[in-house]
Design goal:
The chain is about 40% helix and about 25% strand. It has one domain: 4-Layer Sandwich (Purple Acid Phosphatase, chain A, domain 2). The protein starts with a strand and ends with a strand. Strand 2, helix 2 and strand 3 form a beta-alpha-beta unit. It has a 6-stranded mixed β-sheet with strand order 4-3-2-1-10-11. Strands 5-6-7-9-8 form a 5-stranded mixed β-sheet, with helices on one face. By secondary structure, it is α/β, with parallel strands linked by helices.
Length: about 240
């Protein structure tokens, strides 16, 4: 049995053909998980935008929801650490799918490993603009006000803003943030963790330090990369 980790599919961000490719790749990963896994960790930004209303949700994501439900029916435990594109999750995943949701980070034990996991947005010390924006987006009053918008206005508006933001950051290399992420991981490893797992950078990374392992799950847009952890090894793979 193994733990699988993936992140950053940003479902709903591309054209229909690209979205179908992403879903097919995720489905292949889920088949792998069903074959020899007992736990799945989603490290955020599965969706380009996810916002729950009391009686509505984006209908384009029904297929992935059924796929997740199928995993749960097979007895696979699923944990979800929300990212900067899907932080506004409410209780749907926990109540309807029995998927545990964590807002910023999730610390847990798996087999012989003590693991610290987080999506990673705002970790870079030099990313001060986003750190300010993060506080605004996660403000409870702002979330409450946004929920008052009609659904057919709010979802397209949010997707447009999210897409513009992602397009802007895609032209800005994340290479200058990599050292900040390594430093963060190293500090957490010094806190008696064996593994630090992060997403957000859209770049698969595996670094072995003297005090543990830092691994970045990459993305499910271009790399289609994921993490596998069992008693024998910690590895990065591709679908």
């Amino acid at each position: 049995m193994a733990l699988y980790i993936f992140s950053d599919a940003h479902l709903g961000s591309n054209n229909l053909k690209q979205e179908q490719i992403k879903l097919e790749k995720i489905e292949k990963l889920f088949e792998i998980v069903k074959a020899d896994g007992d736990r799945l960790l989603i490290l955020g930004d599965l969706f380009e935008f996810w916002f729950e209303y009391k009686n509505a949700m984006p209908k384009e994501h029904m297929k992935i929801l059924f796929m997740l439900q199928s995993l749960r029916e097979k007895g696979i435990q699923i944990d979800y650490v929300s990212g900067n594109h899907d932080f506004w999750m409410d209780d749907f995943f926990e109540k309807q799918l029995s998927i545990s949701v964590y807002r910023d980070s999730f610390d847990f034990k798996y087999k012989k490993y003590s693991i610290h996991s987080t999506h990673g947005d705002g970790l870079a010390k030099s990313d001060t603009g986003y750190r300010i924006l993060k506080k605004i987006l996660r403000n409870r009053l702002n979330i409450w006000l946004y929920r008052k918008l009609p659904v057919d206005w709010a979802i397209p508006l949010a997707k447009a803003v999210a897409g513009h933001s992602r397009e802007h950051t895609s032209h800005r290399t994340y290479d200058r943030f990599e050292q900040d992420y390594e430093d963060y991981a190293y500090e957490r490893l010094n806190d008696n963790f064996d593994v630090v797992a992060i997403g957000h950078l859209h770049k698969p990374i595996l670094k072995i330090f003297e005090n543990g392992t830092y691994i970045n799950s990459g993305d499910f847009i271009k790399n289609f990369s994921y993490v596998k952890i069992d008693n024998d090894e910690i590895s990065l793979k591709n679908v």
